[in-house]
Specification:
Shape: globular
Distance between the termini: 30 Å
Number of strands: 12
Structural class: alpha/beta
Largest sheet: 6 strands, mixed
């Protein structure tokens, strides 16, 4: 470790001690009348909805203004890291989950919230897991959503071609064949221009039904690896769907793929529940819903991948902690969860909400049979991540240039350099 790093950690330790000593002061002083809390987010597509949500907060808290600043996802993490290193970060930062959160915790950039945000106790472990420090177990962010994954489908297209929600994988393939014969792209997807993460999500849609709900726990204890025949079977099943992807899918990016579905040129899209509000906003006339990927046998219990999308954290060197903590209190509340569900159509981090959107209702019903999104929840804690290998090789696998067994072996070799199974 360099001397600069040593001095940086020492300084952080001193700051942490002073913050702890002053904690009581922060909780007893009233917010200044001119308090402005700066909040950073990467969800540019949610800007209008988030502004409406915080308008509701400001109406009940006239002494606090929330200044939301949005940065595109591709640039956000670098901007946040640079700002925090220089002590110029926001009061509240939207944080990635799991392994992408941990570096900020290790550097001392965030305050633990366990004792300062009581409403966290009303959130499920599935939500809190992505905001929890790996070494100390403390919670460093207020989660906002627990997305799950499934098959979005165009209800009008299905009805026009006499297609029902498939009860088996054989039915799913038959539906795809019928759509293809009618000149309709069955499944919109693509992996170009940094969009291979969408193909990883698609594997997360297909996988749980193939490898089962207990597979994640077996992976965490070392009983199973990515080379397990069940995981290889999930990769094979995804590759089998290639005939139903758009022609030249490897050259299609995420935005183009979503536009194919939103515009009615494709009948299905394999994605996460965060697409719900975006699809509705871009085409209010689109009639769509979602179903879990089907199993080989009719009537089998179907499972979906679920994960904590991220959280909002209190920056240690923020200049307005007391008001920022009040904002985080609101973001952990049932009121925020209800507004979030109504405005964005995602499954919120709390379940004590009234669901008004039928697509969201279906998502929350599906989430009752969920298993952790394997590559994100379990294997993005250090580099090389399982995701980085999957994303870099999955197009070659689908194109038939490498076998699913080779991709699985490469993923296992990568994570074996750092992953230690729980005993």
């Amino acid at each position: 470790m360099s001397m600069l790093s040593i001095h940086r950690r020492a300084a952080l330790g001193l700051i942490g001690g002073l913050a702890a000593a002053c904690a009581g002061v922060f909780t007893t002083l009233p917010a200044r009348a001119d308090s402005t809390v700066t909040l950073w987010s990467w969800r540019t597509e949610d800007e209008a909805a988030m502004r409406r949500i915080f308008d509701a907060f400001e109406a009940k808290n006239p002494g606090i203004k929330v200044n939301i600043q949005f940065t595109p996802d591709a640039d956000y993490q670098n901007r946040l890291s640079t700002a925090l290193r220089g002590g110029r970060g926001p009061d509240i930062a939207q944080l990635k989950a799991y392994g992408e959160l941990q570096p900020f915790v290790d550097a001392g950039y965030l305050d633990a919230l366990d004792d300062n945000v009581p409403e966290l106790k009303n959130m499920a472990d599935a939500a809190l897991g992505g905001a929890r420090g790996r070494t100390d177990g403390k919670v460093y962010g207020v989660p906002y959503s627990v997305p799950m994954m499934g098959v979005f489908y165009n209800q009008d297209i299905f009805a026009a071609h006499g297609i029902e929600i498939p009860k088996t994988y054989k039915d799913f393939v038959a539906a795809c064949e019928k759509l293809k014969a009618a000149g309709i792209t069955p499944i919109a997807t693509g992996g170009a221009n940094g969009s291979a993460w969408e193909l990883e999500i698609a594997v997360g849609v297909v996988g749980p039904t193939v490898y089962g709900p207990g597979f994640y726990d077996e992976m965490m204890t070392g009983k199973a690896t990515f080379e397990d025949p069940r995981y290889v079977a999930a990769l094979k099943r995804f590759a089998e769907l290639k005939p139903y992807f758009p022609d030249g899918f490897a050259g299609i990016d995420y935005t183009t793929a979503t536009q194919q579905f939103i515009g009615g040129k494709a009948a299905m899209f394999l994605g996460g529940s965060f697409e719900n509000g975006s699809f509705k906003a871009q085409n209010p006339k689109l009639k769509f819903s979602i179903f879990p990927f089907p199993a080989d046998v009719a009537g089998a219990k179907l499972y979906t991948s679920a994960f904590s999308d991220g959280s909002y954290g209190l920056v240690s060197e923020g200049t307005n902690k007391e008001a920022a903590t009040k904002v985080l209190d609101f973001m952990a509340s049932a009121q925020f969860a209800q507004l979030f569900a109504d405005e964005l159509g995602w499954p919120p981090a709390r379940t004590d909400v009234t669901v008004k959107d039928p697509v969201l209702a279906q998502m929350m019903e599906m989430s009752k049979n969920s298993t952790p999104y394997l590559t994100l929840v379990g294997f993005r804690w250090q580099s090389p991540t399982a995701s980085s290998v999957l994303q870099s090789e999955i197009i070659d696998m689908v194109e038939g240039n490498i076998a699913p067994e080779k991709l699985a072996a490469d993923m296992q070799a990568a994570v074996a350099t750092w992953f230690k199974p729980k005993q």
